[in-house]
Every structure is written in C-alpha cells, then in structure tokens.
UniProtKB/TrEMBL annotation, chains A, B:
Domain (CN hydrolase): residue spans on this chain: 71-316
UniProt keyword list: Hydrolase
Domain of life of the organism encoding this protein: Eukaryota
Database matches in Pfam families: CN_hydrolase
Lineage: Eukaryota, Viridiplantae, Streptophyta, Embryophyta, Tracheophyta
Protein name: Carbon-nitrogen hydrolase
GO process terms (BP): beta-alanine biosynthetic process via 3-ureidopropionate
Amino acid sequence: MVVECWKILCKLSIMTGLEVSRLLLGLNCGRPLETIIPPESAKALSSKHDFDLQAFRFSADNEFLREPRVVRVGLIQNSIAIPTTAPFSDQKKAIFEKLRPIIDAAGASEPVDGESTEFLQEFARKYNMVIVNPILERDINHGETIWNTAVIIGNHGNIIGKHRKVNENHIPRVGDFNESTYYMEGNTGHPVFETAYGKIAVNICYGRHHPLNWLAFGLNGAEIVFNPSATVGELSEPMWPIEARNAAIANSYFVGSINRVGTEIFPNPFTSGDGKPQHPDFGHFYGSSHFSAPDASCTPSLSRYKDGLLISDMDLNLCRQLKDKWGFRMTARYELYADMFARYLKPDFEPQLISDPLLHKKSS
Amino acid sequence: MVVECWKILCKLSIMTGLEVSRLLLGLNCGRPLETIIPPESAKALSSKHDFDLQAFRFSADNEFLREPRVVRVGLIQNSIAIPTTAPFSDQKKAIFEKLRPIIDAAGASEPVDGESTEFLQEFARKYNMVIVNPILERDINHGETIWNTAVIIGNHGNIIGKHRKVNENHIPRVGDFNESTYYMEGNTGHPVFETAYGKIAVNICYGRHHPLNWLAFGLNGAEIVFNPSATVGELSEPMWPIEARNAAIANSYFVGSINRVGTEIFPNPFTSGDGKPQHPDFGHFYGSSHFSAPDASCTPSLSRYKDGLLISDMDLNLCRQLKDKWGFRMTARYELYADMFARYLKPDFEPQLISDPLLHKKSS
C-alpha cells in the first residue's frame, strides 16, 4: 500500500495532550470563549511565516466521578505552496516546508513540561501529538484502486489505523467536484479511534452534508470528529457555519472543521456540465476553520485568505454532560428509522402522503 | 375525540396561496432576502394590537418544465393572554381574541383579488388559508390518552388530517420539560400533507433536535416543515438558529420555526430534580420565529419579547432545484445506516472502535 500525500496536507489536523487547570465557568452556551495566549515562540513563528494564529478554551462542569479530561487540539488550514503545474514531488515537498513552522507552532503550544518522550515519527513523537492526516491512498492490493483515506498517527508516532473516508461513502457530484471519477466509496465503516487523548473520528469534506454520517460516528463513541474539507465559497459557504455546529449539538461531541484556503489556477480552463462557462479554477477555498462544541458554542473562524493554526483546549467531559442534559440518545427511537429506511430502500416505496380530498375542488 | 386547544395557539402556523410575479434573483445563498411591504391594513393591525410584523421573499430559478410555485406562508408567535391561574376556558378565549387580529393581518397579506370562496371554517375559508394547528388531543377511544397532535386544516376549512407529533416520538426529558408525564409518544409515523399550496409536515418542538426526524419528513416528500416550539432561552437559545437551518439544508425543504414568547409565572414554585433551586416559571420563551430555505438562506427573526407575524413568499421549486444541485438523496446510501441501526439496536452492540495499541505504554 503506497501512501501519497498531495491532497492531504491541505487537510491536516492535530491533537496534543495537555494538563490544564480547569475553568469553572460552567457550560458556555453560545457565550464568547476564553482566549488562550499562545507562547511567544508560536507567535514569533506565525508572524515570521505569516499565518493566522488563534487559541481558545472550551470548559465543562466539574464531575464527582471523573477528573477533567482537557486536551489541546489544533486545526491547520493552508493553501498550496507552488503552482499546480509544478511536478508532483516538488508540490509535496513545498507543502511540507510550508507546514513545518505551523506544526512547530502547534507543538510550541504544549507546555514546557510536556511529556514528549519517544521519537517514532517526526512531529507526532516530537510533540507527543496525535495527528490526523487525510490522504489519497493507492491500494495496490485491490487493482491499484484509489481511496480517499485518513491515517491516524498515535502520539508515539505509530499508525493507529486508517479510515477510508466513511463520509466518502458520500461522494460529491456537485459543480466541479466530480470526485466519483477519481476515488472509490469507502469500505471501512464509521471507525472511531481511541487515542491517548480521546476518541476521535474523521468525517471528510462532503460527508458533512449528511446528518446520518455524523450520527454514525457518534453512535460509535466519537468525542471529537474532524471534518477536513476543500470547498469553495460560491458552492458551500452559507452552509459552512451551520452544518458542523448542528452535528456537534445533535451528537454531543466536538467538531473540528478545517477548510483549504486560496485560489488555485489551472493551465487549461474546464467545464463540468453545469452550464457555466469554462473557468481555470475551482473558485476560492475560503478557509474559515473553526471548532464547534456540544453545548452549541463555537470558536471564531480562521482567516478566509491566509494559512492558519487554530488551537483550542477542550474538556471532553462536556460530551457526556450534554448527553445527560439533553437525552438525545435516550429519545432517538432508532428502531423507527431502521424500519423506515428498510421501506424507503424498496423500489416500490410509497411516501406517507395524506392528500386533501378537496385538493382539486373548484372554488365557486 | 375531543380537541382541546390551550397549548396550541402558541404554536400556530398558517399557509396561504398567492400568485406572485417571480423575481429573477436566482438562489439567494445566504444573501439578504427581498423585503415585502405588508398592506396598510396589516400594518395598521400590527400597530393597533402591538405585534411584530415582518415580511420577506425567497426566490428560485426559472425552470423549463414547471411554472414557479410561489406560496405565501405566515408564522405567528404569541404569549399567553391572561395569567396561568385563570380558568382554562377563559385562557382559551383570551388567546383566541389575541390571535384574531394577527390572523386578520396574515389574511390581509393576500391580494385583494384572492380567491377566498367558501366559508367552512372561520379563518381558513375566509382567507383561503391552510392552517397548521398543534393541539393537545384527548383520545377518548384509547383510554382518554393525551397526545401532542397537530391538526391540518385545508383551505376550504376542512380537516385534512391530524398528526400525533411524530417528532414527539421524541419526548423531551430535559430541565423542567418532563413532557413524557403528560402525553404519549406519537403513533402516526411521519406524515406529509398534500395541500392546495404544497406538501407540508410538522416537526413539533423537541423533535427539531433529531436530524433523523427531519430526514423522515423529507423522505416522505415535505416541501415545508413547520417546527412549532415552546422553548426557553437558558435551555435552547444557542441551538435555535442552527438546527432549523441545518434541517432545511440537509433535506432540501423550507422550514418555518415558531417559538412561544413571554415569561409565564405559576403560583407554586417547582423543581425538576436537576439540582436547581425552586422557581415559579419555565424561563423566558424567546420567540425569534424565522424561516429557513434549502439554499441556506434564512429570514431575520421576529421579536424576542413581542407577539409577532412573519410572512414570507417562497417558490417551492427551490426544493427540487437544490436536490438537483447537491444530490444529497443520491449520495445518502441509506442502506449503510439501516444496517448500522439494526446492529446498534441489539443489546450486545459493540461500537466500531480502534484502540491505539500503545495507549497504555509508559513514556520513558
């Protein structure tokens, strides 16, 4: 199995462990979050390499039976580094170089006494991070099939597992994004990965439009779901602030939304059969990465135009606290929907439609 | 079957037909909507009776095979009219009197040449309206059971059908809203009602928190789903602007969100076993009724404190246009979720969890 990495780093997300003295603000339902001051070294990197840097904190109530479970999570959004016409290997190297200082800034956000011990993989081991790395996977063992995959790297640098984008069970067929022509529907279910810092899952890109997809990760126990995306303003920007927040609310978990940033010009203008004139780009990838919490609060978004790193501390206890408060799992009645889907999936399904018997009555 | 009406009118929604010359603005994705100037008679009623009055218009693209299907829809939010200690019949009468001028204003929003013909039921026939009327239903034929029901009144004043709040398949057990103690889970499925002006459904109150519930109305063909609610600020306000908009986006239909308004004091303070001190009210019902469209656009909200009427014209063709643009139905893969629910519902269900084998490795 060869792992290629071009698509990927535009969608990098990072999670790193940290003991943080808890706040006692209670649930910050929609209230502004507390801002974290990043360390000077991180601020220096962001100004030297010109990327957006923001940091916040989600709090939860104290519990009798569990200690706070505060983790620090980072989202990186970035543009490509050199033109789309450059050789693939050069593009890949250039993106690595661009990301290095941003990941260093994420690592610098760990306290000086952080437990970075082993060094199995460059950044994961250097900073004791879990890294979520969406890639384009070439599956030699299955006819060289291409999958849209996310690789989960543990905080010791080990690969915990990979996830063939379950959300790419749902492959976009919209506008210029005819992605079913270049990878396969996923076949790995809706896996949740138990890491040193919490249970995480990845709902990639277009999968965010499917509430069932978000739900499945929730039923499998996710505490944080990352949504690495590459989407453009004209297509999805009005939906962007809504869907991730709704998923966090409905499933009582945190969501980390990451979007590519920048406008990429191709040498040959193209069309996609949607009646639009030919154009040399997909439109503007609008960045605006952000975190959503299960209590409906959320962070501000990163820049719409610049590379950026968004850091947030979050007490994962908030997930169960919201489950207990709202009881969505206990009121869900999934059996009703299992039955409805079974009926809906039959070719002869007829909707439950009650027509007004006077529908075609003439008015006198 | 006796229909009682106290709970109800705080949740009234109205739909009335109207031929409107179409706009050619195209899809207004998140852009400000065009404002409609209500007729003078409606404005006069709103100032005389001191209720909020707003009116907007959602447009859709022209189609080759279908004429525009513009309907005018109204949402009414209101407070109670006399103290909660007054006799039930007096409270009911008082709410009727309070609502009369607001419904007249909704009717006045029909053009002078409107086709009001028959007079089977006061307002429906007077204004050629379809009226959605959520009630508390006493079911004599089933042991005097109480159901949380919505009655759909056709534009000829006829009762098209009733719907025992499918969404109250999902009965809240949160804070002071222990509603499972005073009505039954619905047993009428997820019906969609085909009216003279479009296919409508009702997702009442707490049902808005369940994406599956919204989905089921969509699978049954709803073009507008009303969400009459009675919810308070401290509990749900941060979620209010998110959930309805997400439902409209995910299911390619319009959503009309109605919330009760006002703070209601009861003579005997109460608690609900959630650790809070006793209190004589549920909190503030924050109104903020609004419309959401399938293209992610939405109207401003009605007042947080005053009774109000929100009118909107909407071209229902927008629903199919968004389905064709985004293809959510074609990429949904419901079979995966039917299978997952079947597994999840078993007592021995085990989540798809992949643990880091180094999870408990000591750092050296």
